[in-house]
Amino acid sequence: MMTPSERAERGRAARKRVPRSSHGRWIPSAQRPDPVDVLERQAQDRLPELVPLRYGRMASSPFAFLRGAAAVMAADLGAQQHTGLTVQLCGDAHLLNFGVYASPERTLLFDVNDFDETLPGPFEWDVKRLAASVTVAALQNGGSRPKAHRAALVAVESYRSTMRRLADLGELTVWYERIAADDLVPLVRRDERARFENRLARARRRTSLHALAKLTETDATGARHIVDDPPLLERTTDVDRVTLGKIYHDYRSSLAEDRRVLLDRFRFLEAARKVVGVGSVGTRCFVLLLEGRDDSDPLILQIKEAGRSVLE
Description:
Blueprint: H1 4-17, H2 35-43, H3 51-58, H4 62-68, H5 70-78, E1 86-89, E2 98-102, E3 108-112, E4 119-122, H6 123-140, H7 145-166, H8 171-175, H9 190-205, H10 208-215, E5 216-218, E6 224-226, E7 233-235, H11 238-254, H12 257-263, E8 267-274, E9 285-291, E10 298-304
Antiparallel strand pairs: 1-4, 2-3, 5-6, 7-8, 8-9, 9-10
Helix pairs in contact: 3-4, 4-6, 6-7
């Protein structure tokens, strides 16, 4: 393991090799693949009946296209000179892959919440993906180009200053670093604060009970079932149920013992294939409905296909 001074020297060497100013330039390579071809190759591993839905969602706005085109941007980044400073990347660090979620202690935290494309790679690829998404979002929301440029600079400056602060801290301190959602409230403009706090309140209500009301219904006998709403939500076949049962068993086996004890208090009821997001449309994603003490004590889990990262 390198010392802090050795890490700093390695960073200075990378800066000489790849100047900071070079990160703001992008010239398409003569061998750049057609973006449509990139998406079509990716579609070969997707459920064919859902590919048109994916393209439809991507076509709805510039930001939606950026969300779904992680493979296109990855190809462009891979063709550029990079620092060689390797980290475990998010792999798709656009603006909407940051959000709030509950910790095991039910504390609402703010962080990256999507790791479908995670892979080791040059640190700046995540930073560039984030900056590009901030720019596109600002322009789509009516901001001028100077304002969009400034928004991207603020995002990158925040990243730089945070990394500089963390560089002086011990390993355990960095490991336990976190951002509680409530800590963000003072950072929000006063005229936006009430709306932001309402969003946090809605996030706290997004529990399994909340999902139960959205995803399920009761039949004439009072039995609860997942809503059948193809192609967005479609109950599984018997073959799928067998496969999902094995995946669920393997998942259970991977848990720490205390979590297995908790999970064993629930029984599996039903499963359904669910369409999620933009870039993930066409991958195999399922929701599982489990029941604890009674039908007012649900647990809803998601099983999502893990494919190769777009960075590979």
